[in-house]
Amino acid sequence: MYDLIILGGGPAGISAGIYASRKKINALLITKDFGGQSVVAAKIENFIGSKEISGIELAKTLEEHLRAQNSIEIKEGVSVIAVKKADSGYEVEDSNGSKYLSKNLLITIGSSYKKLSVIGEKEFAGKGVFYCSICDAPLMKGKPAVVIGGGNSGLDAVMDLLPYASDVYLLNRSELKGDAVLQEKIKADPKVKIITNVGIEEIFGDMLVSGLKYKELNSGEIKTLDVSGIFVEIGYSPNTELVKDLVNLSERGEIIVDHKTMQTSAPGIWAAGDITDGLYNQINTSIGDGIKAVLNIYNSLKNQ
Predict the structure, then answer these.
(1) What 8-state DSSP symbol labels residue 247?
(2) Are 201 and 209 in contact (CB under 8 A)?
(3) Are residues 174 and 207 in the same domain?
(4) For strand 167-172 and strand 144-148, is the pairing parallel, antiparallel, or unpaired?
(5) d(CA 133, CA 156)
(6) Sequence-separated (6 or more) residues with CB below 8 Å from residue 190
(7) Which tens digits make up the pLDDT trace of 126-165?
(8) How many domains does the chain have?
(9) Residue 265: how many CB atoms within 10 A of its CB?
(10) Residue 95's CATH number
(11) SS3 178
């Protein structure tokens, strides 16, 4: 039996793994891959200690730091498919059918892209509807594209598209909410056209996307936009399906934690990063969450 199993290999999980190793906790980290949502960022300018780094580079750096530790076991390339209470802790099952027992769990499996849930979105997923601008922006070379979402993710997607797309439309239900610096950059580019106070009605096309319909919320008028690519950047939903029956969740489906300790409502279960009800979803804060959780788990183990 392990003292701790860490679920997830994003910034929170990796920082937790490093500290678990340094504290000589008998720990296992399970992850499908490393980096979490940070991997999709073309450029990260607010990671402490680096003026500028790509998401892929950051993920590699964090992974290398974790693998340099010699006191933690790592299972990569598998997903966790089940978590349940056991007689003396918790049982975790991975996608290979392997089962593990642990006294404590640290949940750091983050969140997934939110969907628009409109006609045509599912049909054209990967055929013009995309959720990763850094991955798919090059497909828009010389073509018009639209980004849906006015937060930092949406503004970053616009920046990713500018070197490729002929025109970039930015649509949002309200005024833009992303960082002022990013807003200034995209507003200064003549290729960007910002349309706010609209709702997406339908995505259409033949074999591939050819456009979308949106409604002006003030007038109710339906308008059409002819584009070759639609990049959905409307936020994330926490991946709490595995533990929803074990811990208390917020109204938004996030794991509720004591932010002093990162402990959940269930004894022996802790959570860190974007999956929690924290106010800020940032790489730096996720790293801090993971460290805080492990230090408190270490203290808990000492007192057992």
Answers:
(1) S
(2) no
(3) yes
(4) parallel
(5) 8
(6) none
(7) 899 998 888 789 999 999 999 999 999 899 999 999 999 9
(8) 2
(9) 13
(10) 3.50.50.60
(11) coil
